[in-house]
User: Fold this.
Amino acid sequence: MGKTLAEKIWADHIVRQHEGEPDLIYIDLHLIHEVTSPQAFDGLRLANRKVRRPDLTIATEDHNVPTLNIDKPIADPVSKLQVDTLRKNCEEFGVRLHSLGDVEQGIVHVVGPQLGITQPGMTIVCGDSHTSTHGAFGALAFGIGTSEVEHVLATQTLPLVRPKTMAINVEGKLKPGVTSKDIILAIIAKIGTGGGQGYVLEYRGSAIRALSMESRMTVCNMSIEAGARAGLIAPDEITFEYLKSKPHAPKGADWDAAVSYWKTLQSDSDAKFDVEISLNADDLEPFVTWGTNPGQGLPLNSKVPNPAEISDAEERGAAERALTYMGLVAGTPLKEIKVDTIFLGSCTNGRIEDLRSAADVLKGKRISKEVRMLVVPGSARVRLQAESEGLDKVFLDAGAEWRTAGCSMCLGMNPDQLAVGERSASTSNRNFEGRQGKGGRTHLVSPLVAAATAIRGTLSSPADL
Amino acid sequence: MEKYLSHTGSVLPLRRSNVDTDQIIPAVYLKRVTKSGFEDGLFGAWRNDPEFVLNKPEFAGATILVAGVDFGTGSSREHAVWALQNYGFKVVLSSRFADIFRGNSQKAGLLTVVIDQSEIEAIWSAVEADPKTQVKVDLEAKTVAYGSKSIPFAIDDYTRWRLMEGLDDIGLTLKNIDSVSSFEESRPSFKPKTLPALS
Assistant:
């Protein structure tokens, strides 16, 4: 019987296999940031261990860096301590670090792909659950905890139990104004936040094949929001073309060898997935979340659901709690929900194509007087690219704020936070209670919906303008 | 890591499903560079509410958290495990855990046990009726027991053995480090390296 893509990558990385034990899996790339690494480096120090492969490890500062005045010292002393600790650790253990102010600094999942160190067929880990982003290249990429970070630093391997595989077939053609963000929000709404638990998801079908690399990253990024540690897409010409010009892409004979290997990275036609589900891309509409988990989403033309009509008791209870927290009344059209904050950025939607698509909507227009809009590029390079295309001017002329790179308001570890009761339309990945600031309320949307909402002040798509 | 054989204690009944790691410990509390001191941030957003179950005096001193389905979803932060441990929890029971949280807990020595939702509800009812109810979670016998009830649970033999012996995962892997070295010799040359830095 044939193998799925995930099974092939797994098989190519088994260092040791022993009955009754997890497989020992080799890790091709370990990405590091300031929040989940300090205790891991400390563990190495205590045990007198080294980083086994500094040449397969790279660090960046992203989670709690400010996005204003980055030439000044970080004001929050606790954030500063964490960033300083990363700098000291990287220096001591010989790890490459891109610090605030460096042209390669940015969100770890934006930096890997833009450097070209994210490639098909690799195993990639990071102490961050959105590591699934790199699956867009046909890599097996997943988030790990700090104990595992320490394990990878010390051994470049992880003991892992092989996950099951789920095929998600998305066939058809997206309507104008519908994006890959809407695909993934619709998938999560369909299978639920626990639906992918224990699986690696493989996104397949004509609608996925038609997506650009950056749009594919948006899809894979949110695999974890469906409960799956990893999600991936088989590499193809779009992948190879994207990689070819990147600094760390293989060169010369290595490139040819790599491409011929990469071309084998497809699920075999007779491979059997543990589960298969399908979604029709033709029917999709712009999607938005109304609740406090990413599975609580609906097409933008819908109304806030009535919990009384939900038969499952757990789901009904969760919906009631969500509506209370979100301050919403059942039956209200989603398009009548007023927001005060727009966040455009994050590892989900902070890439150049995301900024371009939002700028297209905003060009020559002003955002509503009642909203503030933060535009936070995913990396310093994305920011420079946007400025070279004049996108910064479009955002500033529209009345938005143009910031420097980082995770920013996606999780509000830096000063970019919602205040109690504030409501955002956010291109990020989590609408959990308090995620963007204590008491803040989040609606997850695509960059197009974010831009249209900024103009109208209520949840909207460009078609409403 | 401490050896884990069995634990007996009282229960905190957390009647909520889908408790993500942002709720277990909000991001603003993640800035420490140690593994201790996270107890103040545990369930940070809910702690201000005097009605929140963690604040109820009858459940003070509970060491076993019994939570709704899909506990620990979202962010990979192991700080969620440390916060529970720092606060004094030794075991978490739920009918389903998120993968990364479960992995983290097993590495850090917080026992996570899966039992049916109907059993979770029965424990909630029992401890709400009598908060002093003592529950024994026995890893050796693979049972959760209270009153006259004994509920079997499944856990893979490898994880169970590692927890019962208190073994450090890294130490176990380092015993086989030769196999890592020989694997490295067979890696193709086109695989990328981060050093030297190219841009």
Notes: The CA atoms of residues 344 and 393 of chain A lie 15 Å apart. The radius of gyration of chain A is 21 Å.
